[in-house]
Amino acid sequence: MEETQPLSQSELPLCDSLIIWLQTFNTTAPCQDVKQLTNGVAMAQVLHQIDMAWFNESWLSRIKEDIGDNWRIKVSYINELLQLILGCAVNCEKKQEHIQNIMTLEESVQHVVMTAIQEVSCIMITYLKRALEELQEAQAEKEELRQRCQELDMQNEMMNEKLDHLFVSEKTNDGNNIINACFLYARLEAAKDDYRVHCEELEKQLIEFQHRNDELTSLAEETRALKDEIDVLRYGLSKYNYVTSELLRSHFSIPLFYQGFLEISLYRLEEKHEALLKEKERLIEQRDTLKETNEELRCSQVQQDHLNQTDTSATKSYENLAAEIMPVEYREVFIRLQHENKMLRLQQEGTENERIEELQEQLDQKHRKMNELETEQSKERIRELQQQIEDLQKSLQEQGSKSEGESVSNLKFYYGNSVAYGLSIIGPVQKISELEAALQKKDEDMKAMEERYKMYLEKQLAEKERRIEILESECKVAKFRDYEEKLIVSAWYNKSLAFQKLGMESRLVSGSGTCRDTGACAPARSFLAQQRHITSTRRNLSVKVPATTAD
């Protein structure tokens, strides 16, 4: 025997709630799950408790407990039987007691049971309406037949009275009356024959109605058999839907995993991007400060150049003083550092370009390998799904052929004519064609979902590559700027040391000169103030030189 049919998601709460309601009757037979209800013993005991007059002990004794698995109940009738038992409970003499037992259950179970009661009430109302209509039609036919029988009885009585009257009148009347009576008798005999023929026709109609009733009963049995076949096909379809849903779930769980992995990597890249932006802002601030210091150095350099140009016409002592303030070694060191900076920058650009090209080639190779692996996996998955779909189609065809053979044997057993055989074949063939159309639609939906997934994956990969390129370019620029700033800082450090040395010497020279001129030393000044002071002293000295030469 086959296993129990897996109920759909919409039928599970109803079945579970009705099983919980059945447990309130405290039957001797177990009724904890659907499998324990398939033998029908627990449901029979519940019906006996509901109405002992109708479902009496003799009826209950006919329920067998050792029949094993009941295939017919397993396939489709668990919910219907439980709902019918519920309808019997709420319409019997003890319905108030049963309703109070229902009200003691949980709220969710009460809601489901009330919904089932409403459905059963609607079904019972429709069945009662149909039964009343059929009963009214049968009563109308019965009344019509009764009236016709009464008319025939009345006509028969009239004929008998006329015959009696004729027999009486034969004794008293003359020969003319006898002749008239003979004519009347002949006429009555003809009417009697007509009525006999009419009665025979009515009997034939009655026989035809009986045959028609037999045909209708056989058709009802045929519809019942077809309903069983439909239940079997519905069971196969539900199993197919369950298998396809599991396959689709397993097929799309891997893309969801890849999507989560891509989201995590994208989140990490965004964090790195934010850190790089913060580092970029810090470097921009540092660059601005270095620009300011560079401007100050340029101002000091311009002042030194101006001093060198003004000191060309001065005396040898002042030329020696300018040489001490701006030595030639500093200029040579500065030119050498600039040359080394340019060479290092060119060398760094060359190595960075080579490194970037190597990384780009490695990244392209990884992308190609990843795409090849993904395409191979997707093709293999598609082949597996196609094989599974073909297996399901074969199983459905075998099941359809099996059900078709059963229906043919049943129809041969009942009718034995080819017309009924053709009618029985049409239903399963239509079901199989509908199942094939549904299967084809499922395949199309699955292909469309795979195409959409590939399109989304390609978009994500393109976005990822674009973000990686942007981050690599920003990283390269940040490295170049970092290296350049390090060189600038080292040059600035060396230059500041040289300027400090030069400032110390100039401060000593200017301090000794001012002390000789004024007799008191000036207070300490900043670097730019000292440079301005040196420039002003040089101008004063250049103005005083012609007077000394004239003397």
UniProtKB/TrEMBL annotation:
<keyword id="KW-0175">Coiled coil</keyword>
<dbReference type="GO" id="GO:0005874">
    <property type="term" value="C:microtubule"/>
</dbReference>
<feature type="coiled-coil region">
    <location>
        <begin position="266"/>
        <end position="300"/>
    </location>
</feature>
<protein>
    <recommendedName>
        <fullName>Calponin-homology (CH) domain-containing protein</fullName>
    </recommendedName>
</protein>
<comment type="similarity">
    <text>Belongs to the hook family.</text>
</comment>
<dbReference type="GO" id="GO:0030705">
    <property type="term" value="P:cytoskeleton-dependent intracellular transport"/>
</dbReference>
<dbReference type="GO" id="GO:0031122">
    <property type="term" value="P:cytoplasmic microtubule organization"/>
</dbReference>
<dbReference type="InterPro" id="IPR008636">
    <property type="entry name" value="Hook_C"/>
</dbReference>
<dbReference type="Pfam" id="PF19047">
    <property type="entry name" value="HOOK_N"/>
</dbReference>
<dbReference type="Pfam" id="PF05622">
    <property type="entry name" value="HOOK"/>
</dbReference>
<feature type="coiled-coil region">
    <location>
        <begin position="432"/>
        <end position="481"/>
    </location>
</feature>
<dbReference type="InterPro" id="IPR036872">
    <property type="entry name" value="CH_dom_sf"/>
</dbReference>
<keyword id="KW-0206">Cytoskeleton</keyword>
<dbReference type="GO" id="GO:0008017">
    <property type="term" value="F:microtubule binding"/>
</dbReference>
<feature type="coiled-coil region">
    <location>
        <begin position="125"/>
        <end position="219"/>
    </location>
</feature>
<keyword id="KW-0493">Microtubule</keyword>
<dbReference type="InterPro" id="IPR043936">
    <property type="entry name" value="HOOK_N"/>
</dbReference>
<feature type="domain" description="Calponin-homology (CH)">
    <location>
        <begin position="12"/>
        <end position="128"/>
    </location>
</feature>
<dbReference type="InterPro" id="IPR001715">
    <property type="entry name" value="CH_dom"/>
</dbReference>
<keyword id="KW-0963">Cytoplasm</keyword>
<feature type="coiled-coil region">
    <location>
        <begin position="346"/>
        <end position="402"/>
    </location>
</feature>
